[in-house]
Write a structure and sequence with these properties.
single chain; alpha/beta; two-stranded antiparallel sheet; 13 strands; globular
């Protein structure tokens, strides 16, 4: 199980640099930024900030939750992602979303279909174009004529550092999104997190259903679950910290709470379910450090096995 870290740009540039640099040193697999243009929790442009983070880190991969396909022209999105992949020598995860807040698009006068399934259809064509451009760089000329996305005689460069291209992970749980995940994606970023809001006793039910379907892809597919992790020497101390951090929302997110052994047991349960990746977020750098110690312990156990 790999673990990525959702960063906190609302804390300011220096704070997010520190958070990302620590994650790089602590062995986290990736760092993530939300991609919104109207939000008190995302005041900075996510792509610009991630480029700066990429320059300040060495090994941690770079992802977004989720990179909105409507904010950037599709061919230009291919170009900036490939450029960042070259700059960071292959650390980009192309984690895309179809846009969940049409109001912020209206505020910036960014066109977006009102219909959810039309937005997903647009995303599908964006993914098709990304793959086409990234695997047919200049001097080849690429043309694409979709219902939403079009390019003609494009000599694309640069090609990505990763071959054949950065992994493409898609976020969302709607039937339309899952259809595109099954057809085209290298990973699925689930949104299951708020048990009470969804009326679910089990926050992994959506994952169980999707992975158990007969048409789930046989190819390698990362499955990402959002997670809040609270680890302490005793279960009681971990639970108290979860309550202090989440308040009345504690228990609504399917949190992983307990001693190191208890947390590792729960992570193993998720791995057996089919989850390959956790995207965590922490209220404090101390919480981040303790989960990093948990990762190191798990790695040592695997090495000894």
């Amino acid at each position: 199980m790999r673990i990525g870290l959702l960063l906190h740009p609302e804390r300011g540039v220096r704070a997010v640099y520190e958070e990302a640099s620590l994650a790089d040193d602590q062995g986290y697999d990736s760092v993530w930024l939300s991609d919104h243009v109207v939000s008190r929790n995302a005041p900075l442009d996510a792509f610009t900030l991630m480029t700066a983070i990429g320059a300040r880190t060495r090994s941690v991969r770079l992802a977004w939750s989720m990179l909105n396909v409507h904010f950037r022209y599709p061919a230009m999105l291919a170009k900036v992602l490939a450029t960042l992949d070259q700059i960071t020598e292959g650390r980009v995860i192309c984690s895309l979303g179809s846009g969940s807040n049409p109001a912020e698009h209206a505020a910036y006068n960014i066109p977006i279909p009102d219909d959810h399934d039309a937005r997903v259809a647009y995303t599908r064509e964006v993914v098709q174009l990304l793959k086409l451009l990234w695997t047919h760089p200049a001097p080849e000329l690429v043309s694409f004529d979709g219902a939403f996305v079009r390019v003609r005689d494009l000599a694309f460069s640069p090609e990505p550092f990763q071959a054949p291209h950065p992994p493409i992970w898609l976020g969302g749980e709607s039937p339309a999104t899952l259809a595109v995940v099954k057809e085209l994606a290298d990973g699925w970023v689930t949104l299951t997190r708020d048990v009470a809001h969804q009326g679910l006793e089990d926050p992994t039910r959506t994952i169980r259903t999707a992975l158990g379907a007969p048409d789930w892809p046989r190819r390698a597919m990362d499955v990402v679950l959002q997670a809040r992790i609270f680890v302490a020497r005793t279960h009681e101390a971990a639970l108290a910290e979860a309550r202090a951090t989440l308040g009345e929302a504690q228990g609504r997110f399917g949190e992983i709470v307990g001693t190191p052994d208890e947390c590792l047991e729960r992570i193993d349960e998720l791995a057996r379910l089919g989850v390959t990746y956790l995207r965590a977020t922490f209220a404090t750098l101390d919480q981040q450090a303790r989960v990093a110690e948990l990762l190191a312990r798990a790695s040592a156990v695997r090495a000894d096995a």
